[in-house]
Amino acid sequence: MEQVKIIECPRDAMQGIKKFIPTQRKVDYIQSLLRVGFDTIDFGSFVSSKAIPQMIDTAEVLSKLDLSQTKSKLLAIIANTQGAKLASIHKEISYLGFPFSISENFQMRNTHKTIAESLVTLREILDIANHSNKEVVTYISMGFGNPYGDPWNVEIVSEWTEKLSNMGVKILSLSDTIGSSTSTDIEYLFKNLIPKYPLVEFGAHLHTTPNKWHEKIDAAFNAGCHRFDGAIQGFGGCPMAKDDLTGNMPTEKILSYFTQQNAHTNTSPMSFESAYNVASQLFGEFH
Question: What is the pTM for the complete model shown?
Answer without folding.
Answer: 0.93
